[in-house]
From TrEMBL:
UniProt keyword Transmembrane helix present: no
Domain ABC transporter: 5-230
Designated name of the protein: ATP-binding cassette domain-containing protein
MF-aspect GO terms: ATP binding; ATP hydrolysis activity
Amino acid sequence: MAHAIEVTGLTKHFGPVKAVDDLSFTVDEGRVTGFLGPNGAGKTTTLRMLLGLVNPTSGSATVHGQPFVTLSDPVHTVGAVLDGGMLHPGRTGRNHLRTLARASGIGDRRVDELMELVALREAANRRAGGYSLGMRQRLGLAAALLGDPKVLVLDEPANGLDPQGIRWLRDFLRRLAGEGRAVLVSSHVLAEVSQTADDVVVIAKGRSVTQGPLQEIMARSGRQGGVRVAGPDVRKLGDLLYADGARVSGDAHEITVADRTGEQVGRVIAQHQIVISELVPLGGSLEDVYFELTGATGGPS
């Protein structure tokens, strides 16, 4: 699996304030990566350094191995939405995209495809100044996709969306990742991130707190509780997992595995042809894990 984004030792000082402190993480192709942290944690500064809008004090941030400013064809490489996207309120949604497309040598056919893709076809000829916040977010997504890029960087894309819009966004991002794109999403909607992201990067005070596959992070947390397994062969399964260092409790009919994901337990089941009747993830939530890791008392940005 290739790293589409690589952040290495990224540091940014604004005078005496260290906004980002030796931050490193990767974003892989075909994966949605959630970027989480409290207000002032350094998320937006990190995204701006990645996109060449802010110069780092030290460290690097690259897309396909290159700094953004050296990309030969950035519009076809990276699509980004920061601050909801900028638009002229007097232009229609379609004309806003046409203006951006022509500046990049992209034809109107792509504009019409994207207005359909982000469910704005019916509003295409309305002035963008009259769009709701959610509609402006979708127009920003369309702008980010003009060049059909393989990497997307999105800052709070769910902001302003109603429940139906959030569900649409979830399916949309999963579809983009399914096409092989790398999607980096900064969000404060933790419940939605838990249903959308493959991986998460959690930062606090500019430093990495934890990062990795979401399910592994959830399983490692004491808040998560792992998985519950029932069936005729759970004693054998429990013995195998315990021998591998897992925290196992229960009896001959049902066990709880506190520090393994369902996928990890499932591999042991398949490898040893163990018969079970139930395998269920237990309790907890990304919100629980988030507050445990960051010690935040307010909501994340």
